[in-house]
Write a structure and sequence with these properties.
Blueprint lengths: L8 H7 L12 E9 L5 H14 L11 E6 L2 E7 L3 E9 L25 E12 L7 H6 L7 E5 L4 E5 L9 E7 L4 H22 L1 H27 L5 H43 L10 H95 L6 H32 L6
Parallel strand pairs: 5-8
Antiparallel strand pairs: 1-4, 1-5, 2-3, 3-4, 6-7, 7-8
Length: about 425
């Protein structure tokens, strides 16, 4: 009864229901693993999960899916594929006695976790148990974490409490202790999922910190070189070619630094936003004498994220400064070129004037030469006429012919020069 569906309608409608939290009954033990997996290892990850399904006679995940959840005996496994990492969450019901004494991951076949493709970024155990009627003993809570300083808060408007120390313990896992004071099963699943995501996104965001530290020292060296270069440009020290070569080197270094770091810095910003959002969703309330997760992150995590953001901004600013220096150098080269062109035009003008003077001199000599030869011919004619019996004096004839021939030759040269000027004036000018 409706028009045809958009090809992505069902996929987009289901997207808001993707990765739902598990329904957890108290007590529950959970283990979480976040692995960085490159594109080449995605197929291996799927095959490894399929082998576990075959061992427990569970239907394997269909090709191309990005999340999978199934029960393997007493263990429930949840797998989620994200942009650059994969998350594995394991749940098992029941209390194993002391917190973190027997984690959920211990129920997997021996060696199965170690064979997962990828690199471990986060490994954590969580213990969800009922809280005592009275306030929990702080010494007992601290003992669950080896006596280390703990971070904790009430969650969900007092429905429970969460504690952690954000440390990796001797077993290679972080620890989260959740005390149930009235969680619903869905609420307990949401709170645990958010705690695991806070740890995962925190670690993934901090992957940019070593890059920021490395790039900071590189930026200082580039800034120093750029200051020296711009000072040389201002003082007109060094040739344009050497300055251009140095500026090109600096530009290449800045672009190389940007290319090597911007993906990680952008991911850091995105993950940091997710950390803050997940903490807000916990709806924390203070427990006397203990830092909340929000306070801990503000003091320990936010400065690291700010460092990455500052280095990223410095790189972009440095790129703009190098571009401005390139513009200044181009202006300097343009001014120098204009000066050279002006000097060349002035030199051409001087040569043209010199050529004009030489031409005028040559014209005078040419007139004299022509007059000499023409008058010589007249003299020969007069001598020939005298020899033929004509009463003529050759010398007087030559003398009389000199001014007349000179006048005729000068008029002819002037007329030829006028014709040349007229021809130059009648040539079409270029548009």
């Amino acid at each position: 009864m409706l028009p045809p569906d958009h090809p992505l309608r069902l996929e987009l409608a289901d997207e808001v229901h993707a990765r739902p939290p598990e329904l957890l009954a108290t007590p529950t033990r959970a283990s979480y693993l976040a692995l960085l997996v490159d594109a080449d290892s995605r197929a291996l990850e799927h095959q490894h999960l399929a082998r576990l399904c075959a061992q427990y006679e569970v239907a394997p995940p269909a090709p191309g899916i990005t999340q999978f959840s199934a029960r393997f005996g007493e263990l429930r496994l949840k797998w989620e594929r994200h942009g650059e990492f994969s998350g594995w969450t394991l749940f098992t019901a029941g209390d194993a006695g002391a917190p973190f004494g027997e984690p959920a991951s211990a129920l997997l076949p021996a060696g199965w976790l170690a064979q997962l493709p990828g690199q471990t970024v986060v490994a954590a155990h969580a213990d969800l148990r009922a809280a005592a009627a009275s306030d929990t003993d702080p010494a007992w809570v601290a003992g669950c974490f080896g006596g280390q300083g703990i971070v904790g808060a009430g969650l969900g408007g007092g429905a429970g409490e969460a504690y952690t120390d954000f440390r990796i313990h001797a077993d290679g896992h972080a620890r989260f202790l959740l005390l149930d004071r009235g969680f619903s099963p869905r609420q307990a699943g949401r709170m645990l999922q958010r705690l695991f995501e806070i740890e995962a996104y925190r670690m993934l965001a901090l992957l940019a910190l070593p890059i920021a530290r490395e790039q900071a020292s590189r930026i200082v060296a580039i800034e120093k070189s750029l200051v020296e270069l711009t000072a040389g440009m201002a003082g007109e020290r060094g040739s344009d070619e050497s300055l251009l070569q140095e500026l090109t080197r600096l530009a290449a270094e800045v672009e190389s630094a940007l290319a090597a770091s911007q993906f990680r810095f952008g991911a850091c910003r995105a993950y940091a936003d997710l950390v803050r959002r997940r903490i807000t969703e916990l709806r924390e309330s203070r427990i006397g004498g203990i830092q909340t997760l929000d306070e801990f992150m503000a003091r320990r995590f936010t400065p690291a994220v700010a460092t990455c953001a500052t280095v990223s901004q410095r790189l972009h600013d440095l790129s703009e400064r190098v571009a401005q220096a390139s513009g200044l150098l181009a202006t300097r080269v343009g001014i120098a070129r204009e000066r050279q062109n002006q000097a060349l035009l002035a030199s051409m003008d001087r040569r043209a004037k010199l050529q004009l003077r030489l031409q005028q001199t040559v014209e005078g000599l040419s007139v004299a030469a022509i007059v000499y030869y023409v008058v010589g011919l007249v003299g020969y004619l007069a001598k020939a006429a005298k020899a033929g019996g004509v009463a003529v004096d050759p010398e007087l004839t030559v003398g009389a012919a000199i001014p007349l021939v000179g006048l005729v030759v000068m008029l002819a040269v002037r007329r030829a020069r006028r014709h040349v000027r007229d021809d130059e004036g009648s040539e079409p000018r270029p548009h």
